[in-house]
Amino acid sequence: MHWLALGIIIPYVSWNVAPWLKGLVLAELLALPIIAMVIKEDARAWLPISLFSAALGAMVGRAGSLWV
């Protein structure tokens, strides 16, 4: 559900930065609540969540700039 929502939100945010950077920043910011919930169970889980959020956010930002 998180990434479904981000796929809708990221392309429609108007920031004067590169689309991949916009996606990366938004994905990282919006992943913070998930990281806060997961870190209680597994303290090492923040790194993969952050890395995947950065990569997927950049891809969604780039794809959104091409197709939306």
Low confidence ranges? none
Largest sheet: none
Using only C-alpha atoms, the radius of gyration works out to 12 Å
How many distinct beta strands?
0
Mean of all residue-level pLDDT scores = 94
What is the molecular shape?
A: elongated
State the domain count. 1
Describe the structure concisely:
By secondary structure, the protein is mainly α. It contains 3 helices and no strands. It has one domain.
Describe the model:
With 68 residues, the protein is mostly helical. It has one domain (17-67). It is built from three helices and no strands. The chain has helices at 2-9, 19-38, 46-67. α2 (19-38) packs antiparallel against α3 (46-67). The longest helix is centred in the C-terminal third of the chain and has 22 residues, at 46-67. The two termini are 20 Å apart. 21% of the residues are buried. The mean pLDDT is 94.
Task: Give structural attributes.
elongated; 68 residues; mainly alpha; 3 helices
Sequence-ordered SSE layout with sheet pairings:
Elements: H1 2-9, H2 19-38, H3 46-67
Helix pairs in contact: 2-3
